Amino acid sequence: MRYFILFYLVLFLVLLITIFIFSETNTVEWQEFLVKGINISMLATVTLIALSIGYRTNRLKADKAITEQKNIFDQKEKDNAERIKRAAIELEKTNGLLEIQNAKNEVLLKEIHHRVKNNLQTISSLLSLQSKTIEDQGALDAVQESQNRVTSMALIHQKLYQGENLAAIEMRDYFETIGREILNSFGEKANGVTLDINMSEIELDVDTAIPIGLITNELITISLKYAFNQKGNGKISITMNKDENNLIQLRIADNGTNQSAGMSEGGSDFGTIVSQFTDDTIGRTSRTNHRARNRYYYQI
Q1: pLDDT tens digits for 269-286?
Q2: Same domain for 242 and 285?
Q3: In total, how many domains does the chain have?
Q4: What is the pTM of this model?
Q5: Of 182, 187, 191, 185, nearest to 252 (Cα)?
Q6: What is the CATH number of the domain that holds 236?
């Protein structure tokens, strides 16, 4: 558009110079030419003014449209920023509420485990009181074994509310604690017997840890009852690991005599019942008895 206007200006200037040069000529032809030149100049001037006005008008419209679009974009950007800010505030409030709710749930869950542990501990204490009035050794042993079973379950809930993870139990620490409890419950009969826990730290969920705790309790009890009748250095070994298929492998063995080999699979001994029970509850079971030692193997 600028070049177009410049062209008309140059043309108009040339016309003026021509009129100035031939202004002294008074012929009819020249007068007609002069009139035509003036008309052309006026027409060019009017056209130039119209084009200039049109160009200016269009430019103003274009600038106005650009400004309006920019204002709309800026407003949308501002609105989006406000929405994002409000959403961030709402999200922060929601996260805060969730953290408070999670904290409340955690306290509640710990309290539940604590109460379950206390209830089981009460049962254990009642069994202990009852055992003091029992004179029959067989009945006394049965009550003691029942007390150890309750203790093994109570310890699960104690570890849960004392630990950081409310959904899982660290089994190495659990085996060490329950092993000491069982050895102490046998008193002098467990003198010289040590517990060897050879495993890394493994966490299991409650549904898996409780039956494993009961199995471990029964097998340690069987070893203390039958494998170490003669005084000497006895050892009960517990190992647990996960294989490449993420299956848990639990092995419990002792180096005592094979006095438990004669127990009937259909007898009333709870250890035998547990061994059969685990086939249908937590996994495939394999048990082998050797003359020099008893070994139990579970794959879960």
Answers
A1: 544 555 555 555 555 444
A2: yes
A3: 3
A4: 0.61
A5: 182
A6: 3.30.565.10
